[in-house]
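Input chain follows. Return structure tokens only.
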Amino acid sequence: MHANLNVQRAGVAPVVRVNEPVLAAVIATMRDVAKRIEASPPTMDGILGLKGVIEVIDEDEREEDRRAGEAAVIAGFGVALASLAEHAPSRRRRRSQRFCARGSMRSRP
């Protein structure tokens, strides 16, 4: 048996921010390189598109919301386990009946 749980947090908007130390390093590097080569100046979207300049992070949940979500997951898992335990004998019985039926069909001439 295998169980899988996917959780999606609704209502928690991501936060987009500029990583200032990375941006400063990128600008300093661009200025240094611009002294050595002739090139078009960088564009805003080009700079912001560089890896690490923009960070997208999930806003932290409030502690009480996180705990309520965890409690709901635990309760739901308990319900699922109880349902499996309740229906397990009938599933075993059906599986056993199918096995016996196949075995008796094979033994016939």
